[in-house]
Each structure stands twice: as structure tokens, then as C-alpha cells.
């Protein structure tokens, strides 16, 4: 069961981060209430699976979704792209069909 999908660049970036994290077992995506719009994405390399996690794999990468975040994250695409503003640094971006609005700074979002 796949709740989210990672693009090839995102998968490669996260796998590289895993090799740099001693004891890392996979990638977790959750959300938290924050910011001016309501919610923010919380990507993390993890060492321990939470009992509340939904686990699946994609292209050899173990992915964990916090069960409480599942509704907000369903069908999200995670990509790794160059930022188009400022220093042109690469970063993970989240393409979420459930988003209804995003704050001006782009750090938080709302859903219906």
C-alpha cells in the first residue's frame, strides 16, 4: 500500500541521507500543526519505527507514514528539486492534491 510517492531524485536523495545516518532504517513523513496556514510537513530519517506508523517500501526505500497524518498525506508526491529563489539549493518539495491553501512563505498549508 502506497500512501505517498517519491520521485526518483527524492528517493536517491533520501537513500543518500540514510547512508549518512548511523542506524537509519527509513524515511518518515508526518505533519504537525504550525505556521500561519495550519500544517507543516515533517520529513525525517528515522532509526526506530513508531508503533503508529504505516510502513511500505518504494524502490528499496522503507517509508513510514504517521497514521494520524495519513488523511492529509494521501497521494502526496515527494520530489527533490532546485529552489528557484535565492541560492538555488535543492530541497524536498511536497505536491499535495489535498491542499486547499498555502501560506505566503510556503511553509504551511490547509486542507478541507
Detail the topology: elements first, then pairings.
Elements (H helix, E strand, L loop, with lengths): L4 E2 L1 H12 L6 E9 L3 E9 L6 E6 L2 E6 L3 H4 L3 E6 L7 E6 L3 E4 L6 E3 L1
Relevant terms:
2 helices; 112 residues; Hypothetical Protein Aq_1857, Chain: A; three-stranded mixed beta sheet
H-E string: EHEEEEHEEEE
- How much of the sequence is in beta strands? over 45%
The CATH architecture classification is Sandwich
Q: Please give the domain count.
A: 1
Mean pLDDT value: 86
Terminal-residue CA separation: 24 Å
**Corresponding CATH superfamily:** HesB-like domain
CATH uppermost class:
Mainly Beta
| Spatial sequence of strands, sheet with the most strands | 3-2-5-4
Number of strands: 9
Write the CATH fold name. Hypothetical Protein Aq_1857, Chain: A
What is the count of DSSP helices, taking H or I runs of 4+ residues?
2
Query: Low-confidence segments, ≥5 residues, pLDDT <50?
Result: none
**Helicity, as a percent range:** 10-25%
Largest sheet: 4 strands, mixed
Q: Roughly how many Å is the radius of gyration?
A: 14 Å
Amino acid at each position: 500500500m502506497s500512501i505517498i510517492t517519491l520521485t526518483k531524485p527524492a528517493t536517491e536523495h533520501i537513500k543518500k541521507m540514510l547512508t549518512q545516518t548511523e542506524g537509519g532504517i527509513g524515511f518518515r513523513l508526518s505533519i504537525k500543526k504550525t505556521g500561519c496556514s495550519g500544517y507543516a510537513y515533517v520529513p525525517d530519517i528515522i532509526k526506530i519505527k513508531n508503533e503508529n506508523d504505516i510502513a511500505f517500501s518504494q524502490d528499496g526505500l522503507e517509508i513510514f507514514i504517521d497514521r494520524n497524518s495519513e488523511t492529509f498525506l494521501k497521494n502526496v508526491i515527494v520530489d527533490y528539486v532546485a529552489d528557484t529563489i535565492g541560492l538555488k539549493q535543492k530541497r524536498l518539495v511536497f505536491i499535495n492534491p489535498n491542499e486547499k491553501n498555502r501560506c505566503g512563505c510556503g511553509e504551511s498549508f490547509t486542507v478541507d
